[in-house]
Design a protein that fits this description.
Length: 65
């Protein structure tokens, strides 16, 4: 999913640039929105990975007792 976030960000940058070149304010806004979505997806993926790591760490401690 992190790759999907990067793809959304890249797509958004391209849309924003195209909007700037053509003077299309709507396309620029869509590009910025796509970039924000991509960043949010990356943050969610990082949070999920950290949660899994914590869960695994706690699970390992329970196995030692």
């Amino acid at each position: 999913m992190a790759d999907k976030g990067k793809m959304d960000q890249a797509k958004g940058k391209a849309k924003e640039a195209a909007g700037k070149v053509t003077g299309d304010d709507r396309m620029k806004a869509e590009g910025k929105t796509d970039q924000a979505k991509g960043k949010a997806k990356e943050a969610l993926t990082e949070t999920e990975e950290r949660a899994r790591g914590i869960k695994d760490s706690l699970g390992d401690k329970g196995d030692r007792t």
